[in-house]
Amino acid sequence: MADYETIPINTLFEIPALKPGVMKDSAPFVAAPVHQEALGFPGELVDDWQARAIEKFGELLKKSRALQVYMDGCVKCGACTDKCHYFLGTGDPKNMPVARQDLLRKIYRRYFTFAGKYFPKLVGAEDLTKEVLDDWYSYFHQCSQCRRCSVYCPYGIDTAEISMAAREIMDHIGKGQKYCNEIIGKVHKIGNNLGLPEAALANTLEGLEEDIEEETGVAVKLPLNVKGADILLVTPSADFFAEPHVDGLIGYAKVFHAAGVNWTISSYASEAANFAMFIGSYEQMKLIAERIRKAAQDLGVKRIIFGECGHAWRVAYSFMNTLAGPFDFLDRAYPVPQHICEFTWDLIQKGELKLDKSANDHMTLTFHDSCNVARASRMGDSPGGQFEIPRAIIRAVCNNFVDMAADTIKESTFCCGGGGGLLTDDLMEIRTKGASPRMNALQEVVEQHGVTHMAAICAICKSQFSKVMPKYGIGMDRIVSLHQLVSNAIILDGQEGSETEDDADTIEDTASD
Amino acid sequence: MLSTIFAILFYLATAVFVVGLAYRIRLYARTPAPLKIPTTPAPVTQTGVVLRLFREVAFFESLFKANKWTWLFGWVFHAALLLVVLRHLRYFTEPVWFWVNWIQPLGKYAGFAMLAGLIALWGRRFLVERIRYISGPSDHLMLMLLIGIAASGLLMKYVAHTDIVALKAFVLGLIYFNWQPLPADPLLLLHLGLVLILMFIFPVSKLLHAPGVFFSPSRNQVDNPREKRHLAPWAAALDANRSDAGGE
User: Fold this and answer.
1) Which residues from B are below 8 Å from A122, CB to CB?
2) Nearest residue, CB atoms, A69 vs list B65, B139, B215
3) pLDDT digits (tens, 9 = 90+) for B224-236
4) Which residues, in sequence order, are bridge partners of residue A233?
């Protein structure tokens, strides 16, 4: 791995001085022809790539109002320049959102605008050269599409849209990213990012059932491919094996069990993640979303519930109705789809879960808002429900909860550093540096409030944190799943050693918070 | 001769400004937004979106969250510019509308606020390393142009008065196609010349941020994707390929 220093903890949140070009060589592995062609993209960089790139760019400008307006609208005010975690972590000026956008905008101006065609130097328009393409490949893979910059932009310019478009263009000239494209191929072929076939999945779920029974004495089921179930659970495949994800999955199973609902997982759509969003491909994203539609139809379910996953919830909440709807065949008394947190919170409010908050007394929690949940989706009926509902659940199941600094949570949350298709070992340096703003904010509450653990509701966040936290001197077990906390606190009927005397106080406790 | 050149230039500039802007707005309006991408938390009703855009346009809400200095300079400049433009309506109307008279006292001083805001914004482009890095020639020239307009206007108002009665006759003459001579005052010609340049470049420059903000999907979309299916025409065509197409 490259030789680099981890940015030291900086709880003063200082903005770094510019270090031009320091991350120029940080680029992910290029997709092999077999991964490219599986998605219908050229296997390798085509000979006439400039012309094909401009042609694709022109097509995207016609298909996306966001791209067209965002290419024109920037006034270089600088509001975004200190907002990106990758800039804050590296100091590379091309990681300032406006400068990242300009990598594409200078080509837009050169080929699509009057000023750029006739006065290129004046407006910073440039020809599409190999150097520009290399910059695209490096810096558009140093954007986790977290949308933090778009919160602060006076025109709402969303760099995520721009990096998605850039990746879409690169895919179409044969320069795709190995990590995302290989994974998307696996979903098309097998049904999940891991390439976990049905038999292996069944095995895993059985193992989990045994674990839960061993722990609680209650036969909690994790059903697979059950026709006629009421609820289809779609969850990131990392939940099936990774830590701490799997503890979250156990939590969902316990909640479903306690609620007495009839639910199932589908092996055909055994993946909530939709990496096609990261590469900006509407068509690929639609194919993956339609697997969920088909699974729901084949199994005859009435509801779809998504597990803890950030970008997956964005695709599910914001895009699934568009991509794979309408969902008239489901029970419209419930939102389509629902988030597991919405489901759990609803039960807690109704007093239908027996909870022992003291089960989490060995921890002091903080909560990491995942970017796609925070800035690209919602939970519940009112704006901001995506912040309130997870916190309300934590307060209902834990006694000790502290938020991190206000400008690092909710709509201002910092990305974990591994989102947007960057969760791959070949990008470890940028992932580590990009995590520093979140690590700084975490360190602050660790020092000031004795926080011991951070909860998250995103598979990517959880994987990323368990990998990079040790580089900041924080143990990898300090990141927990939100439903892991629920799992700890929940008392199932017939559970061994269950004490039920204080289960009635949950509603009052949460209401008073 | 001079009057004729300026008259023709003003007609041309107006045409470029109006047609160019209309073309751009039409382009924005007609380009589909395939997905729901409001930056959340976002309003869940159309009324809420109108309010969000109003706060954005009137108070620069997002910029306020981002950077208080940039917000202060930017907001002062834009608010002052609005007052100054409204004040200038007195040169285009006879009789002068009553409310234009009301804002006249404010408008006179707004010119100073506008100039101060512009100079502060320009200063940031030199003093803040990050902003210096992202500033190109056109960004500096745009500020110089606006500063030139503000400064020449203020000089005419407070230092070297121009023949404002004759100017008004010229302007009204343009509007009613009854051309009158333009006073050959260098400051006035500079002021008008710079305004002409501004009108010409408006539709092909970053000044498109003005109409653009209203078309920004992250700001103008209602957050209701679960309740209402959003579908762009080009995307709807893809549904036809679906395995269960027609089976509903």
Assistant:
1) 136-138, 141
2) B215
3) 999 999 999 999 9
4) A265, A305
